[in-house]
């Protein structure tokens, strides 16, 4: 199983901190999974110009292809100006229509304010659904006060993160089985 | 469990009666209008045309370790054209794709070889990327192929779905729209006028230029290649040129919208739709049973799409493709005949061209397909569509 943890922002450290914790939990609990952390802040990614994703070169090509090869993607995102950051939206724009078909997507959000709680529900999930992802419905919402010096210090958040990782892996395994059974039934 | 059982499948509920067709289709079927497509070498009294096309892909057969050489692939294509002619197929075309896993970038050269190897089958491109070519050179090539073939060449001009060739040939992707429109217009002008005066943005002006040799019958059929959406079909209607509509899969009724939009736009732009043929192009694969056809072709489509487009073809969608209402012509010969006739009733089109060689389909299977087309599918289609014309008389 290939799992990509995508840290979707070039700004700040909270999302990356939370993604580091996520990747740690993944490694500890699912050592057999192939886990890749992609932090967009570490790559030079061009804006989508509409070409097929196979035709992007360098960092852009690497990120697009890594996501396309994944079985599951955990999207980590901050909330900027009451929405997802442009860096993350650009990643979606780089990929083809239906790019997330047969993939599981789960969401982890960091935000400066509890007022942002419904933004992933209203703005990120519709994108994932449009791209045909199997979505883990419950996401983890982490606020400023849950961090201290680049560590998550709220046990409740840590528990919720553990559950998100477990739900992502269980849904991916289950969905793979469903798909296998379904394709088997076509008889070709 | 087998999901594709014949008796479970829904059938198109109603045959389209001529009286249900919009006016412009009734016009198409009237006896006195049957000669109107002569300019495009379409004779409707002989029924709908059936063709084969290849993108010239050079993909491995997913059931084998290695792929054949480019040399063998090109010879396969030439051989396929000869077999198609022997089976009575009307048309054969070759495309250009300037990217990995393709072998007919120089498609006009391959077409010239086919022109020499055959005697009566019509030949064309599927498609020629006019945006990144010089229309003068394209015209010279195709009128030469027309002369070699003694009047059988056609151009289908498209604009590529990939950017590789823009970089390869030194064009700016930002000019995507305008490159196509300007060069397509020039191509049409060269076709209509023996002495050309022209100036534009992307090519040196032409002053009293004679583009020679001229084709055998004065002009070449030049079609506009169109993708799935009505928006691009509307552009073909505005230009007043015949339309080639590509369709991968999905309900036939969806593609009818593009064809309707095309004919409506022709009328609005002052053209007579009865003078402009429509052709469709899509996946095709025949085997003894529908299940066998699905099972034989699917790995080629799926693996081939993965390599060339980065996404496989969803199995669920492919399975749905067997439904009589879906535009994908894959199945037993009888299923395919019913589908093509249903599409003909909906579209009123003059030609369907079949893509059956995508993704490294082995040559013996291609031969088997041509055999089924020649012995079962083609005679039925001709009989039905020609009979339809006679009833009108």
Automatic annotation (TrEMBL), chain A:
InterPro entries in alphabetical order: Flavoprotein-like_sf, FMN_Rdtase-like_dom, NAD(P)H-dep_FMN_reductase
Protein name (Swiss-Prot/TrEMBL): FMN reductase
Coiled coil (UniProt feature): none
The organism's place on the tree of life at top rank: Bacteria
Pfam families associated with the record: FMN_red
Annotated keywords: Flavoprotein, FMN, Oxidoreductase
One Gene Ontology term of the molecular function aspect: oxidoreductase activity
């Amino acid at each position: 199983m290939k799992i990509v943890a995508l840290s979707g922002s070039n700004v700040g450290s909270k999302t990356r901190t939370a993604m580091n914790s996520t990747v740690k939990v993944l490694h500890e609990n699912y050592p057999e999974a192939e886990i890749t952390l992609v932090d967009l802040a570490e790559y030079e990614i061009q804006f989508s110009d509409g070409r097929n994703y196979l035709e992007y070169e360098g960092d852009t090509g690497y990120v697009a292809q890594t996501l396309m090869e994944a079985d599951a993607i955990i999207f980590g995102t901050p909330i900027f100006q009451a929405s997802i950051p442009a860096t993350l939206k650009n990643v979606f724009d780089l990929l083809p229509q239906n790019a997330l078909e047969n993939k599981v997507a789960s969401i982890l959000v960091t935000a400066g304010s509890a007022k942002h709680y419904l933004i992933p529900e209203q703005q990120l999930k519709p994108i994932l659904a449009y791209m045909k992802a199997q979505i883990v419905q419950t996401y983890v919402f982490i606020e400023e006060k849950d961090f201290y010096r680049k560590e998550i210090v709220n046990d409740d958040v840590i528990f919720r993160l553990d559950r998100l990782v477990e739900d992502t892996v269980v849904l991916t395994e289950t969905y793979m089985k469903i798909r296998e059974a379904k394709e088997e039934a076509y008889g070709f | 469990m087998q999901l594709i059982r014949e008796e479970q499948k829904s059938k198109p509920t109603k045959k389209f009666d001529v009286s249900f067709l919009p006016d412009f289709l009734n016009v198409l079927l009237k006896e006195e209008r049957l000669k109107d497509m002569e300019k495009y070498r379409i004779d409707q009294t002989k029924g709908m045309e059936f063709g084969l096309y290849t993108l010239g892909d050079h993909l491995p057969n997913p059931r084998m370790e290695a792929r054949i050489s480019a040399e063998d692939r090109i010879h396969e294509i030439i051989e396929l054209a000869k077999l198609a002619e022997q089976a009575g197929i009307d048309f054969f075309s070759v495309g250009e794709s300037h990217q990995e896993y393709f072998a007919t970038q120089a498609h006009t050269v391959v077409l010239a070889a086919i022109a020499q190897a055959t005697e009566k089958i019509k030949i064309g491109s599927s498609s020629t990327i006019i945006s990144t070519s010089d229309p003068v050179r394209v015209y010279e090539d195709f009128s030469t192929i027309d002369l070699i073939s003694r009047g059988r060449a056609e151009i289908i001009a498209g604009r590529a779905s990939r950017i590789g060739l823009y970089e390869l040939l030194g064009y700016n992707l930002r000019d995507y729209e305008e490159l196509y429109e300007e060069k397509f217009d020039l191509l049409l002008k060269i076709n209509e006028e023996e002495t050309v005066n022209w100036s534009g943005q992307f090519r040196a002006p032409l002053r009293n230029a004679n583009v020679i040799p001229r084709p055998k019958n004065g002009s070449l059929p030049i079609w506009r290649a169109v993708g799935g959406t009505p928006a691009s079909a509307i552009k073909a209607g505005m230009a007043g040129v015949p339309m080639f509509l590509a369709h991968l899969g999905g309900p036939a009724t969806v593609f009818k919208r593009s064809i309707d939009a095309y004919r409506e736009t022709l009328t609005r732009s002052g053209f007579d739709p009865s003078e402009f043929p429509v052709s469709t192009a899509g996946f095709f694969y025949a085997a003894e049973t529908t299940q066998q056809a699905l099972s034989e072709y699917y790995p080629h489509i799926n693996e081939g799409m993965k390599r060339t487009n980065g996404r496989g073809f969803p199995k669920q969608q492919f399975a749905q493709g067997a439904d009589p209402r879906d535009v994908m012509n894959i199945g037993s010969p009888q299923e395919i005949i019913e589908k093509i006739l249903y599409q003909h009733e909906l579209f009123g089109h003059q030609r369907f061209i079949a893509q059956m060689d995508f993704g490294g389909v082995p040559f013996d299977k291609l031969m088997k397909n041509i055999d089924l087309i020649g012995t079962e599918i083609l005679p039925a289609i001709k009989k039905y569509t020609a009979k339809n014309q006679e009833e009108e008389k």
